[in-house]
Amino acid sequence: MKIVNISEAKTNLSKLVALVYRGERVVIAKNNLPLVDLVVHKPEGKRKLGLLSGRFTVPDSIMDEDAEINSMFYNGD
Length: 77
Description:
Helix content: 25-40%
Oligomer: single chain
Number of helices: 3
Strand content: 15-25%
């Protein structure tokens, strides 16, 4: 485990990221007090498409214009 103060972490971020990527544990500290761990990103998994499939229907009139809304946009004061 490697403990690095924030100022050193700013200076050597690329090197620290490479260490973590290779499996080393890096802790970033402030005044030698551990604050955070630098860890490798782990994706949460693939998104599942179609979660709402069959739960609602799109009305046939979804693209129809509404006279009241058109007047608000185009005839308003």
